[in-house]
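REQUEST ID: PR-0412
SUBMITTED BY: lab tech R.K.
PRIORITY: routine
TASK: structure prediction, single protein chain
INPUT:
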Amino acid sequence: MKITSSILSAILLVSAASVAVAHHGWNGQYDTTKEIELSGVIKSVQWTNPHVTFKFTVDGGTAKEKEWTVETNSVSALNRMSIDRSLFTVGSKIKVSGFGPLPGAANFGLFMNHLLLANGKEVVFLRGAAPRWSDEVIGNDDALHGKVVENDINKRPSTVFSVWTTVYNDNNSHGMHVISGGSAAPAEGMAPAPGMDAGGGMGAAPAAGGGMGATTADGKIVVCTPKAWTQEMGSPYPIQLIDQIAKNKKIILKVEENDTVREINITGAPHKAVGAPSMNGYSTGVLENKNKKLTVTTSNTQGSPDVVYTETFELSDDRNRLNYTLKSSTSPTVSGRYWQYQPGASVMPYGCTNAG
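STATUS: complete
OUTPUT:
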């Protein structure tokens, strides 16, 4: 079958819409209907994206000794929850609970929701979950749920140039959704690609942790793979718009996922792509309304170089949100989402590492 640029661009946008759901690694991998409890000793901690991973030993020194691997949220999410790497010491005794693997799924062992430290304090990793064992709790999801705001509107951004964060409990923020031109209602955190139905059509299923991963011979999922910018814009990580127009006539768009950096050229001329096709394509931009709105035109994206994408980034009237839309030249569908301003937020190094 001949794959046209129209189909390729649709695949890219299906992937972008799917990232928010796939990021957690729950769908198709873990049994979320029940939790498993285990007690053991921490052997190692891998504090890296896309998921923090622990190894610990159960029944050490006995005939039943077994090493378990558990994963949990991203470094970015844990930082926003005030859960720090220093809490977890190799050799310390812990108790954990979480979702076990579904039969036949790529098996990390357990998706950890709760961890009881030796000092009796409980770390709650799962957003919205109540403590399981202790009244002394570490882990606050207010920032993830958009409850941490700057109350003084005059201290909020006055332009699009700021750091912007995802609100995890709002499907309009936690992933792309159809704004207009769609044929069906999207599932949670997802949106059909332009010109396609909600079933996903030609879209490939992302691997756990986000992104179009591959599976090794021993069943491990490789998630640290390059992705097109259309996928990155659907990710649940912070972004930042940086004004470098005076310096080099560019706006820099940083996306925390995969340490993505996009250059938006402010040329003042009609859009015309230059250079070879790339994952980020070639972008030009126009600022309006005292830098409160940025319209970006992108083409030369690898896989669909002739497709022209139009994005808008616009500051909300209350200066607390950055509203975003995305449309391709091959479809009438407009998808979008928003990010929120949170004081003190930053785009951190992603440093993706595949789980061992």
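NOTES: The chain has four helices and 19 strands.
REVIEWED BY: pending
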